[in-house]
Specification:
single chain; TIM Barrel; 9-stranded mixed β-sheet; 30% helix; binds pyridoxal-5'-phosphate; binds iron/sulfur cluster
Length: 347
């Protein structure tokens, strides 16, 4: 198996390097890629079968990215919620710390597509230092989500430097890493990386798979290494039109994630990110997909459907309605639509 750095270097950055049968509108693709970068590494490319397939859609530039007039540059108001650059403090006890600007693939639907993989995402030793200082002087933060870009695309030493500094801050209980590497470049998860991460527990990893075809033997090996290092693995899937907006696909994905020891965590409604309008699905559709999961498969396979509210409101869960009536007794329908009653205790 090729080394991850060799694979990364061999990534395709424009339509002219693509195998011809995967190109659609080469000039259009090139125009998009000059605004929002393109990167498809040979591993992920090997999983793409034909134009329009669910993996092709996640990776290939589409001219609709340039004509979106509905969505917003910074839908989650992350810039207003950053006390220092690249650190977002939206919730009382946790923060999002952006430590790397690059990814192993540039997903066309990325929430931070305005900056990920470009010089507009300005991360330096100084911004990382400033983030660590903010975390040090803000002891209310007990959970730090290390993200980017993709933190696991950094060198082992750089990852370890950040983890070591975070672990020096006594108020930080939980470290979480958000990474798409187990899905898009699983060979990056070397034995060495797993044994490095293992030294910084309690450490959680949330990864990001969107389609059952992404769950390969290589992805399973990467996740097994992390799980064997004692790292609980979660998945944050995004609902994407033409990729996975289908109850059967989502059910298979969630069930397959469990087989590679990944617990589905969030199923996200697509953010209102400029350049991604063509991927968004109706809220109602997401709720219907949840209804098709709950009770029909293991609770372990059921993520929380969430929308991250535009304007910086944060994430809220969206649930199908099971409660019919609720005063001193609860009247509810079950997953099959039959009605049941639960009585509250009498005082
Ligand atoms: C999503 C997010 C978190 C983590 O939220 P959880 O619901 O705890 O997973 C933290 N900070 C920011 C800014 C976020 O967007
Ligand atoms: S891996 Fe994550 S951060 Fe990177 S482009 Fe994809 S969605 Fe965006």
């Amino acid at each position: 198996m090729q080394h991850w750095k060799t694979l990364l270097k061999a990534s395709i950055n424009g339509p002219s390097d693509l195998p011809g049968h995967l190109v659609r509108d080469s000039a259009g693709m090139a125009r998009v890629a000059s605004v929002y970068p393109m990167r498809i590494n040979p591993y992920y490319l090997s999983l793409i079968r034909e134009p329009g397939d669910p993996l092709w859609r996640q990776a290939m530039p589409d001219t609709r990215e340039l004509t979106d007039r509905v969505c917003l540059a910074d839908p989650l108001a992350e810039e207003q919620l950053s006390p220092v650059p690249n650190l977002i403090h939206r919730y009382p006890d946790r923060a999002l710390f952006l430590v790397h600007a690059q990814c192993a693939m540039y997903c066309r639907f990325c929430t931070r597509k305005r900056m990920v993989g470009t010089t507009r995402m300005h991360i330096t030793a100084d911004t990382i230092r400033a983030g660590l200082d903010y975390l040090k002087r803000t002891p209310a933060i007990r959970d730090v989500l290390v993200s980017g870009g993709d933190p696991l695309l950094m060198e082992d030493e750089a990852i370890e430097d950040i983890l070591r500094e975070l672990r020096k801050i006594p108020s930080i209980e939980i470290i979480r890493i958000g990474t798409r590497v187990p899905c898009v470049l699983p060979m990056r998860v070397t034995k060495k990386l797993a044994s490095l991460l293992k030294r910084y527990h309690p450490l959680y990893i949330n990864t990001h798979f969107n389609h059952p075809a992404e769950i390969t033997q290589a992805a399973a090996t990467a996740c097994a290494r992390l799980a064997d290092a004692g790292i609980p693995l979660g998945c944050q899937t995004v609902l994407l039109k033409g990729v996975n907006d289908d109850p059967a696909i989502i059910r298979t994905l969630m069930q397959k994630l469990l087989t590679i020891r990944v617990k589905p965590y969030y199923l996200f409604q697509g953010d209102m990110t400029r350049g991604t309008d063509h991927f968004r699905t109706p809220i109602r559709h997401g709720i219907d997909i949840m209804r098709s999961l709950i009770g029909h498969t293991s609770g372990l396979a059921v993520p929380t459907l969430a929308v991250d509210l535009p304007g910086g409101g944060g994430k809220i869960p969206l649930l199908p309605e099971y409660v019919q009536h609720f005063t001193t007794k609860l009247i509810a329908t079950n997953f099959c639509g039959q009605e049941f009653t639960y009585l509250d205790p009498t005082e």
